[in-house]
Structure formats: structure tokens, C-alpha cells
Automatic annotation (TrEMBL):
The keyword Lyase applies. It comes from Enterovirga aerilata. It comes from the Bacteria. Keywords: Isomerase, Lipid metabolism, Lyase. GO terms for molecular function: isomerase activity; lyase activity. This is Enoyl-CoA hydratase/isomerase family protein. The lineage of its organism: Bacteria, Pseudomonadati, Pseudomonadota, Alphaproteobacteria, Hyphomicrobiales. The keyword Translocase does not apply. GO terms for biological process: fatty acid beta-oxidation. Belongs to the enoyl-CoA hydratase/isomerase family. SUPFAM superfamilies: ClpP/crotonase. It holds the Pfam family ECH_1.
């Protein structure tokens, strides 16, 4: 039996979610996929968590995506597709999380590993690794790749989804897909932790509204996104934190956020 394919730890307002399946290139088994859904639900519910980091055990691969060996076993033994065994196969719970998620990509990523990266708000990658959406090479699908149109030029995304080839991460970084590239896995995680600490120190209501506004604009377009952004920020402007921020600035001290 596999033990703890997903590990979650919380420190200083930062939750770290670890995919711990290095022996299978951090591929997503049924247990791992369901564990991720549990993790995002926990992070969404915990008031002490402001931001999350998604990373994985070091093995040269951040995540290989779907566990194809387990998929073949389930199809052979039970006659069903592996996705039917996952309670959130397209990771909608992760995408719906209101709190920022940072991908600390300590290796190459492909297929469902790319899906996880797309669902993150910030991405830190490892130099010398590769990225791809390999579904066309194995007869699967990538309906979850649609948000990549807001992150990559359309011809580049078409090349990725139509060929299934892996691209050097440096090429995608040049298009703005990643925020930072680092030299080692430890430096990737260190950079992600630094970003997380900076987010965790900010006004929590403002952070949640900022993420929601950007996501709303992706969904609704510019005009609709602007109107939705105003609505989302009503709670921010009416909060005690909106008073505390300017007061702390005037008094030359660090603000004490209340999240209300």
C-alpha cells in the first residue's frame, strides 16, 4: 500500500502541498488526485492559511501527470477509466481555491503536471527542464489546457497540444509562463517560499480580491472583469484593514491585518 502520496504542512500562514511519489515520477494516482482535492479543500477552509505552495519530491520530474500504469491496471481489472475513480479528475477544486497558489516546479512536467501548473497563480521553474502537454501521444485529452491561452501565445500553445512534444522551460519562460527560473530544486523552493512569505504578509482580503479580479477578467473579458473587480473589492474598501493600512503607513510601522 502506498503511504501519504500527498503531504500538507502549514507554517507562518503558508501551506505547502507536496506530491510524494518520486518512484513513479510524481504521477497522479487515484489516491494522489483525491489527496490533492482534500488538500485544496483544507487550505480553502483554514483561516490561518493565506497562500499555498505546490511542489513535489525530487526525482527530476515535478509531475508526469496521470499514472498511466495504474490507469492500465484499472481498465484491465475493472473495465473503467481511471478518471471515474477520482472525485475531482480535472482538479476544479484547485482552480476554485480563492487563495494564491505558487508552483515550485522542481523538475520537468508534462500532461497532468502541466494542468497543475496552469492552475497555479505564480510559477517557479528549474533551469534545464522541459514542459509539455503529451496527451495526443497517448490517446488522452487536455480540455484543461484552455487557460494557457492567457499565459502563452496561441501558436506556441497549438504546437504544444498538437505535437505533444516537450519544450525547454527556458523557451516558455521567454513568453512569460514562469515568474522565475532557478538553478537547483532547493533554490526553486526557496524562491517560492520567499514569494509566499511576501503574499502572506499582505492584507488578506486584498490578496483574495486581487486574485479573484484577475481570474474574473480571464472569464468575462476586460469590461466584465472591471465591473466584477469593483464588486469583489467592496468588502476590501469597507474593512478595518483598509483603515489600518494607511494608518500604519502614516505612523511608519508594519500594519497589523485583521482580515475583516
Amino acid at each position: 500500500m502506498e503511504n501519504s502520496p500527498i503531504e500538507v504542512s502549514v507554517e507562518g500562514g503558508v501551506a505547502t502541498v507536496l506530491i510524494n511519489r518520486p518512484e513513479r515520477k510524481n504521477a497522479l494516482s487515484v489516491a494522489a488526485a483525491n489527496g490533492l482535492a482534500d488538500a485544496w479543500e483544507r487550505i480553502e477552509a483554514e483561516a490561518t492559511v493565506s497562500v499555498a505552495i505546490l511542489t513535489s519530491a525530487d526525482c527530476g520530474v515535478f509531475s508526469a501527470g496521470l499514472d498511466l500504469k495504474e490507469a492500465a491496471e484499472i481498465a484491465r481489472n475493472e473495465g473503467v477509466d481511471i478518471l471515474s475513480k477520482m472525485r475531482d479528475p480535472f482538479h476544479d477544486t484547485m482552480r476554485a481555491c480563492r487563495k494564491p497558489i505558487i508552483a515550485a516546479m522542481t523538475g520537468s512536467l508534462m500532461a497532468g503536471g502541466m494542468m497543475l501548473a496552469l492552475n497555479c497563480d505564480l510559477r517557479v521553474g528549474l533551469k534545464g527542464t522541459k514542459i509539455g502537454i503529451t496527451e495526443v501521444k497517448i490517446g488522452r485529452g487536455s480540455p484543461w489546457a484552455a487557460p494557457a491561452l492567457w499565459m502563452l501565445p496561441q501558436p506556441i500553445l497549438m504546437e504544444i497540444v498538437l505535437t505533444g512534444d516537450l519544450m525547454p522551460i527556458e523557451r516558455l519562460h521567454d513568453y512569460g509562463f514562469t515568474n522565475y527560473l532557478e538553478d537547483t530544486p532547493n533554490l526553486v523552493r526557496e524562491r517560492a517560499r520567499d514569494l509566499a512569505r511576501r503574499i502572506a504578509s499582505a492584507a488578506p482580503l486584498s490578496v483574495v480580491a486581487a486574485k479573484a479580479s484577475v481570474r474574473a477578467t480571464m472569464n468575462l473579458g476586460c469590461a466584465g472583469g472591471l465591473e466584477e473587480g469593483k464588486r469583489l473589492h467592496e468588502v476590501v474598501y469597507a474593512s478595518q484593514d483598509a483603515i489600518e493600512g494607511p494608518r500604519a503607513f502614516a505612523e511608519k510601522r508594519a500594519p497589523v491585518w485583521q482580515g475583516r
